[in-house]
Amino acid sequence: MNTTHAAATSYDGRTFTFDPDDWTGRPGELVRVDPASGPLVGQVRDARPGRRIGTGLVLGMVVDDGTVRLGHSEPFASAPMRPLTTAELTSFQEQRGAQLVVGSWRSGDVETPLALRAQGFNRHTFLCGQSGSGKTYALGVILEQLIMHTELPIVVLDPNGDYVHLGTPRPDAPPAESAAIRAADIVVRHGRADGEEAIKVAFVHMPRHVQAAVLELDPVRDREEYNQWLHLQLTSGVGTMDDVTTALRNGPPAPRALGQRIENLGVAEWDIWPWNLDHQEPPPHRVTVLDVSTFRTAQEPLVTALDVVERLWANREDRVPTLVVIDEAHNLCPAAPTTPLQTILTDRLIQIAAEGRKYGIWLLLSTQRPSKVHPQVTSQCDNLVLMRMNSPADVEELGRLFGFVPPSMLEVSPTFAQGELLVAGVFTPVPIEGRVGPRITVEGGSDVRVPMPPAPDGH
Ligand SMILES: Nc1ncnc2c1ncn2[C@@H]1O[C@H](COP(=O)(O)OP(=O)(O)O)[C@@H](O)[C@H]1O
Ligand SMILES: [Mg+2]
Q1: 131 alpha carbon to ligand 1 midpoint, in Å?
Q2: Which of 50, 97, 360, 365 has the highest count of CB atoms within 10 angstroms of its CB?
């Protein structure tokens, strides 16, 4: 018995049903249905054997030249249904403006490139998967595509130094793509580096509330000190924390407590403060990777992130589109922030999640568990990339947060192998299950491999 030819029935022209025993495919496959009223393309939503009915969604009608016009159809009964061919599947994605190829899409027996819509990145995107599911790798593939095929400015907050080679093509990368990566204006900065390569933030240029958070000052609990801080005049000659301490010592009236606080916290020893008094902001680049893995304190990555988002927010009226990429996002906008720095950063990210879209500030967040990131950020994401997730509770939560993903497609994520993913939302024509493609650039921070002798044919 052929198990991928079923008879579909639709009473409303929007959804259809079929006998799941006639269908061995997975949810998410695209099908062509041929009722008397004219051919249409649909997506199987639920085809689990043992269910009484399989269900699907009508995507649109196939018009004369083979393109699909989105919309619903006439009701129909017992119309033949079959998987789309490779050509039909590829054409469907192209028609929907999906050009960023991030991997492959298996639908039925055919495999086609899995492409995302570049224009769908004008939303916030959530990437979720358990540790080792391949999030960092997949994020790298997505970034490479955005770098090569768009002009979108990107800032990457890189907690583990995974993206430090984003500008370096792999030796086996296709020549055209190598050239495109080499041509891109990509700068990488590190914590505790020298010169141009260093991440530096001038304390005196940071907004007052950020300065206060660096000093762990709470406006209510530390009422007096916070107020002294507010009224303290920091001159532009004050570039380093040592200068701040000196200013405090000499300034009338001497706010001794503040000076002691700075010394006790060890803030003056952080590597992020520039030594030169006239530290200038580096000019903007197309892609900036901020490798915060080399800082010695947990606070400096937070200060780095605050510097990025505060600046973007302050200049939001300029409406310069920017994608802010945060790997391990639970560190920067946790569900329950604990320190003053985490709190003000999370607050700002919540604000950007809610209002950033209209200014062109878009977030791309990656994390292991949906519940670890602040729900007011997660709930604003219109794109989902889901990789392997073991915990049924987490999958359930994702279902609640991302109502646009068919539950039957979410449910299979515990069976994903490394590199397998589900994409759903504005950046994809339909929810798609697929496999991420090869990286073009060199991975940073990946496992060290056992050295092997070269193969005899020289490859
Ligand atoms: N699609 C893939 N193809 C090849 N190697 C991969 C793929 N995805 C992940 N890996 C490798 O598996 C390891 C873990 O992947 P990673 O992306 O760091 O996982 P995560 O960020 O989810 O913890 C890395 O060494 C990475 O190179
Ligand atoms: Mg990772």
Answers
A1: 9
A2: 365
DSSP per-residue codes, 290-312: EEGGG-SSSHHHHHHHHHHHHHH
pLDDT band at 1 (very low <50, low <70, confident <90, very high): very low
Nearest atom in ligand 1 to 103's CA: 1
Total Cβ atoms within 10 A of residue 62: 19
Does ligand 1 come within 6 angstroms of the Cβ of 367? no
Question: Percentage of the chain with pLDDT > 90?
Answer: 73
101, 128, 130, 136, best to mutate for ligand 1 pocket (most atoms within 8 Å of CB)? 136
Q: Hey, is 242 helix, strand or coil?
A: helix
Is any ligand 1 atom within 6 A of the Cβ of residue 135?
Answer: yes
Instruction: Answer whether 269's CB lies under 8 Å from 299's CB.
Output: no
CB 163, CB 169: distance < 8 Å: no
pTM for the model stands at 0.92
Q: What is the mean pLDDT of residues 226-232?
A: 79
Residue 253 confidence (pLDDT):
55
Instruction: Tell me which CATH code domain 114-200+279-436 carries.
Output: 3.40.50.300
- Under 8 Å between Cβ of 229 and 222: no
Fold of 6-83: Thrombin, subunit H (2.40.10)
Identify the pLDDT of residue 450.
74
Pocket test for ligand 1, best of 114, 133, 135, 137 (most atoms within 8 A of CB): 137
What would the pLDDT profile of 152-179 be if each residue is shown by its tens digit? 999 999 999 999 999 999 999 999 999 9
| Same topology between domain 6-83 and domain 114-200+279-436 | no
Residue 134 CB less than 6 A away from ligand 1: yes
Question: What is the predicted pLDDT for the residue at 458?
Answer: 47
Q: Is the dihedral of CA 412, 42, 135, 157 positive or negative?
A: negative
More confident residue, 252 or 344: 344
Q: Which residue has its alpha carbon closest to ligand 1 atom 8?
A: 134
- Closest ligand 1 atom, residue 140 Cα: 17
For the CA of 327, the nearest atom of ligand 1: 21
Of 111 and 191, the one with more pLDDT: 191
What residue ranges do the domains of the chain occupy?
A: 6-83, 114-200+279-436, 203-269
Task: State mean pLDDT over 401-409.
Answer: 93
